[in-house]
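INTERNAL TRANSFER SHEET
From: sequence group
To: structure group
Subject: Putative epimerase/dehydratase

Please process the attached sequence and return the structure record in the designated field. Keep the field labels unchanged so the import script can parse them.
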Amino acid sequence: MEALITGGTGLIGAEVVRTLAKRGASKLTVFDINDSTQRLDELATSVTIQQGDLGESRQVLDVVRKSQPDVIYHLGGMLSLPSDNNPQAAFLANAVGTYNVLEAARIHGVSKVIFSSTIGTYCQDLDDRPIDDLTLQRPMLFYGACKVFGEHMGMFYRRKYGIDFRGVRFPSIVGPGVRTPGSVQYTSHMIEESANGRHFTIWVRPEMRVTLLYVKDAARAIVELAEAPVEQIQMVNYVLAGPSPSAQELADLVERKIPGARIDFEIDQEIQARLDKSIHPIDDRFARDEWGWQPTYDLEALVDDFLTELSQHPQRYA
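Return from structure group:
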């Protein structure tokens, strides 16, 4: 199997590359605006890395033509807060970029495109029921709006051109080396800052619950979705869920795992108000029923492996 991974030097993308390599992929190509090989570490010499911009159609067409992948894992783009701060750049990266990937797949005969979307496609006009794949998508942030558009473009290419498009809507991803700012990034920052002996202040209420997914589970999920038999794929785009600790529960666990950790709370009212509107429990039954999705990292295993990664591979996350 040969694969092209957009965004393959990033948090989830590098882990997807690592997962595919472990599963015996014969050729892996990474396309990313950031050509750093830091996260890829030992894989950097065995992976083809092409630096480029998703918003530039010629560059996307070129990498798809050269790599001739069996499947494209489309994980590249701008994240939530940077997208809100620069909508024009986000539109080019996230909306135009997804169109460019789908069109390149059509032109060059790539049969399968796997898309990374977000739970941020949901937000407004939610009731008290858990979010599932039938919940109305009305995002609040520009990032979420672009991802909804990306999902629907993929569905169009699936219907009209027969491309086997599939997608996952990730919740908050936890993993070492998170640098992009975000409303719920306190989860990753709390663990890493504490491991490095630094004080950390959480900006949400102690009782605030957020659904998390460890980065290794996220990578495995998107690969397993790609591998699932086509006849099992009915919903096409799927929400995923992992553990849902309160901020206090996570802090207590980190303090237990890291003696001397210094964690406290100072609520950012603006962030808290935004999260109060958008954070809901997640029901991922369609992914579980249709292609056997099941997270492997509960909260304690997540923290344990996070700390092991920092200890064993510090060069990846410096």
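Handover comment: The chain has a mean pLDDT of 97. The radius of gyration is 19 Å.
Transfer complete.
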